[in-house]
Amino acid sequence: MKIFGLTGWSGSGKTSLMVRLIPALTGRGLRVSTVKHAHKGFDIDHPGKDSHNHRVAGATEVLVSSPRRWALMHELRDGEPELTLDQLLTKVAPVDLLLIEGFKRDRHEKIEVWRADVDKPLIAPDDPTIVAVASDSPVPNCPVPVLDLNDAEAVAALIVKRCGLG
Fold this sequence. Notes:
- The structure is a single chain.
- The chain has helices spanning about 15-25, 50-55, 85-90, 150-165, and strands at about 1-5, 30-35, 60-65, 70, 75, 95-100, 110-115, 130-135, 145-150.
- The protein is α/β, with parallel strands linked by helices and about 170 residues long.
- The chain has one domain (about 1-165): Rossmann fold, CATH 3.40.50.
- A 9-stranded mixed sheet has the order 5-4-3-2-6-1-7-8-9, with helices on one face.
- This is Molybdopterin-guanine dinucleotide biosynthesis protein B.
- InterPro entries: MGD_biosynthesis_adapter, MobB_dom, P-loop_NTPase.
């Protein structure tokens, strides 16, 4: 199973890109699942929520993690720690590609989603796991290729190439 991530600051558009990427990738015949990190507690699968959007977009399986619980629904009780990404990956059924949203400190390859209007610094210069940046504007002093955030097919093509799924 190949693993690839989207990272970036809150409000940068990671989920919006993810729900456009899933159909672009499944349309190429790939089986795709997602893992989404949530910084706060969450309730799963309500319309308008990220996990629901991932499923509706075509993900085979959705696994969401937060400090209070993780799902394929599993309540964390009595101070149990949040699972690491490596632990979570053992819970996901094998697919062609597992897309990771968040988990910016983990060491898998990622695309950074960056928007100037979020007014946060670019992560890519200090993170060698970021292989490209997706943005809706020019990215000054970017050390990696910059993709058009609105071109999900181009982003999908880069992921397919980096993962050897072509």
